[in-house]
Amino acid sequence: MDLVWSGLREAVRILLARDPEIVAIFGLSLRIAVWALGISLLIGLPLGVLLGVVHFRGRGVLLSIFNAGMGLPPTVVGLWVALFLWRNGPLGDLHLIYTPAAIVIAEVILTTPILVALVAAAAAGAKERLHEFFLSLGTTPATYLYLLLREIRLPLLAAVIAGFGRVISEVGAAMIVGGNIRGETRTLTTAIVLEVSKGAFDRALAISFLLLALSFAVTAFLTHLQHRVRED
Amino acid sequence: MRGEGGIDVGDVLRVRGVRVVRAGRAILDGIDLHLAAGERLGLAGPNGSGKTTLLKVLALLLSPTEGEREVFGIPVGRTVPTELRRRMAVVFQDPPLLTGTVLANVYLPLRIRGLGRKKAREGAYAWLERFGLEVFAGRNARFLSGGERARLALARALALRPEMLFLDEPFAAIDATSRAPFKATLREILRDQGTSLLLISHDYRDLEDLTERTVVLVRGRVLAAGPTATLRREHPLVRELFP
Q: Under a CB-based contact definition with an 8 Å cutoff, are residues B39 and B48 in contact?
């Protein structure tokens, strides 16, 4: 218990002292999460709606791939992204290995399947329930899409919460493609791994409390939004 | 009144030789039917006779496997012009409601049909009021009872001021005592707006109260057709179905 208390005290001290290194790590983690989630949404939302609503050859195979992709092991994704971004790799000329962008790429690969699968399931359900009603209203493709997105806004928020959980907690891929470089690619999760490996449990705990606070704050905000939407 | 090609120019709906086949089974088989402007037509028959399928074909929600359709005098193939659907409204059996408030369920369809925010809001409130639902306007629609949902679905359809209204068992969830005033309100609105009606009901009294003519389907074919008031009396098989 002493360790937990000392971790808590250290966390409070860091917060009050605004330890520049930790503040920078916190900011970078948040930026990476926002970018990764934003890009995943840009890809996952239209793809999920398409797979949920439009029937075409190979749709079932694609859905199975994305469903399986929800359980992609981060270290495997990290390894493959690293192979591609490595100096001699196919995308080596982009010089992205060991940069925050590399971490974003890995996290987009890990998060997009979650968003696609959840959005596709929600869109398919809404279509099954409301397709004929929407047609009977004389919807155009644009108004049909608007009504459909409106109907799936709750599961969509749930998908965003799940996606955020994935990006903010990810460590394996971030370690491999980011390299955990101080001041450059060190995130809250990789910093915790480092502190634990050094035996600095109080500092690791302090960072973990910050990570928990960030995760809790964003999830609580999204959940609040979800409740408001449900009550509308 | 007959126009070019023998089409009755007063018809809002006309189908010839409509056949719908699903999984090798004919759900509708050679249906000929027409509906004049302002006419109220009943569609009756036992379960599985193809009533709802025929309604969907007529409401341009389902393309027939074979046969011709003319809606508002316009031949309709597999591609359905949105403008035609916008002249109709459908109340489905077990009507699906949009998530959100009761008001949103009337407001949004009006917006989809092109009304401005203010007019759509005013129109939605007016129709909720007409069906005694104004007190629920701000409430979430998922908390409505079965009867209230049925009233909301009808208010939503009528708010669109359709020229052609399709109702599939709209009174099934409404208790016997509430049915009479509900039907009276509906009859009054249809008369005032000159709306044509196609009503599916298992209860012949509903058909007698609201329609002038009835078509009885059995196993996807027309068994009998005629004035609703006399059809049951004059046709022994119809009397058997609706004792």
A: no
Q: Which amino acid is at A146?
A: Y
ipTM: 0.91
Q: Which residues of A touch B88 (CB under 8 A)?
A: 136, 138
Coil, strand or helix at B144: coil
Distance CA B183, CA B40 (A): 13
DSSP assignment of A85-124 equals HSTTSTTGGG--TTSHHHHHHHHHHHHHHHHHHHHHHHHH
Mean pLDDT of chain B: 91
pTM (two decimals): 0.88
pLDDT digits (tens, 9 = 90+) for B108-130: 999 999 999 999 999 999 999 99
Q: Are B96 and A130 inside 8 Å of each other by CB?
A: yes
The per-residue pLDDT for A86 is: 94
Cβ atoms B56, B62 nearer than 8 A: yes
Asked if A119 and A200 touch (Cβ cutoff 8 Å), the reply is no
Chain B residues lying within 8 Å of A133, measured CB to CB: 90, 92, 95-96
Mutant choice from B52, B99, B166 vs A, greatest count of A C-beta within 10 A: B99
B110: nearest CA partner in chain A: A137
**Does residue A171 contact residue A73 with C-beta atoms inside 8 Å?**
no
Mention every residue, 6+ apart, whose C-beta is less than 8 A from residue B95: A133, B149, B150, B152, B153
Using an 8 Å CB-CB cutoff, list chain B residues near A126: none
Q: How far is A221 from chain B (nearest CA, A)?
A: 20
CA dihedral for B16, B21, B24, B27, sign (positive or negative): negative
Q: What is the 3-state secondary structure (H, E, C) of B63-88?
A: CCCEEEEEECCEECCCCCCHHHHCCE
Cα B75 from Cα B68, distance rounded (Å): 7
Residue B3 is classified by DSSP as -
SS3 A205: helix
